[in-house]
Amino acid sequence: MAAPAFVERLNEQIGHEFSAHQQYVAIATYYDALTMPQMAALFYRQAEEERDHAMMMVQYLLDADQVPVIPALPAPRVAFADVVEPVATALAQEQRVTEQIYELTRIAREHSDFASDQFMQWFIKEQVEEVSSMSDLLAVVTRSKHDYERIEDWVAREDTGGEADPTAPRIAGA
To answer: Which sign does the torsion angle of CA 96, 100, 101, 102 carry?
Structure first.
C-alpha cells in the first residue's frame, strides 16, 4: 500500500505534470505563430510527454487502490519577449519538476514505501534527460536567437523525437 504522504504528494504532482503539459502547448503555439515548425513540433511532443507522465501517475494510484485527485490548474504563461524566453521557461520548469520528483522519492523512502520508490526511479532517469536536452536547446537558441533558420536546422538535425521506452510505467487509458 502506498504511504498516505506519498499519495498526497503524488496527487499534487499530477497537477504539476498537467500544468507542464499546458505550458508546453503554450510554448509550442508561440513557436507555431513565428512559423518555426521544428520548435513547435518539439514542444507539442513535450506537451504529450508531460500529459503521459500525469497519466502514468494516475495509473499508479489506481493500481495502488488510491483515488487520483486531479487539481485545478493555473493558466500557463503565453507571452514571451523573444525566442529564448520560452526555452528558459521550459528549463526552469524541468529543474523544478526534478526537485519535485526527488522529494517524492524521499517521501517514499522515508515511509519505507518500496513500491512507490521503485515507481519513481523511471521519473528520475527521465528528468536527467529532460534537463540535459533543455539545457542544450537553451544554449543553441541563445547563441542563434536572431537566426530562426539556424535554430530550426539544429532542432531538425538533433531532435529525433525519441523511441518509446519499454521500461516506462503504464499510461492510464492507453
So the answer is: positive
The set of residues, in sequence order, having a beta carbon less than 8 Å from that of 115 and lying 6+ positions away, is 2, 64
Number of domains the chain is built from:
1
Helices (H), the chain: 4-33, 37-63, 84-110, 114-143, 148-158
The answer to whether residue 93 sits within a structural domain is yes
Spatial distance between the Cα atoms of 155 and 172, rounded to a whole number of angstroms: 30
Spell out the per-residue pLDDT of the chain, length 174, in tens. Answer: 899 999 999 999 999 999 999 999 999 999 999 999 999 999 999 999 999 999 999 999 999 999 999 999 999 999 999 999 999 999 999 999 999 999 999 999 999 999 999 999 999 999 999 999 999 999 999 999 999 999 999 999 987 667 788 889 999 988
Please indicate, yes or no, if residue 164 is contained in any of the structural domains: no
Q: Could you report how far apart the first and last alpha carbons of the chain are, in Å?
A: 24
